[in-house]
Known about the structure:
Helix content: 10-25%
Distance between the termini: 28 Å
Number of helices: 3
Number of strands: 9
CATH topology: Pnp Oxidase, Chain A
CATH architecture: Roll
Number of domains: 1
CATH superfamily: Electron Transport, Fmn-binding Protein, Chain A
Radius of gyration: 16 Å
Amino acid sequence: MDAEPRSRAERRHDTEHRLTHDVDVWVASASADGAPYLVPLSFDWDGRALLAATPTNSPTGRNLATTHVARLALGRTRDVTMIDGDVEVLELDALPQERGDRFARRTGFDPRELAASYHWFRIVPRRIQAWREESELSDRELMRDGRWLS
């Protein structure tokens, strides 16, 4: 039997908590010809966008730079947040020093210190859905067109 469904406000609160406190996210991308790729990446949330870094020439790096879209998943299967977002590709030196430092502190990983070529990937949510059980599926959408729903 399904648990009592959370209100949209409760699900938004839980989602924002997860974005603020989780460190890793599943990132799904696809190549220009549609070949899917899925990896976990560390991220930092600034209240508007997720910031991640991955090697420029990795499948994820190439896919994100080519298509400029990603689908992200946070949480467990029965308590999931799905995010469809638009991707901005940034050179490592394009971010203010304090933003890169914040990412490094939060994730324990600093791509600026590596010899390999990395890019930042700033992912701005366009659509966010969150649900735990079937009882929340019909009202799972929390954000549409980049705006939180009330």
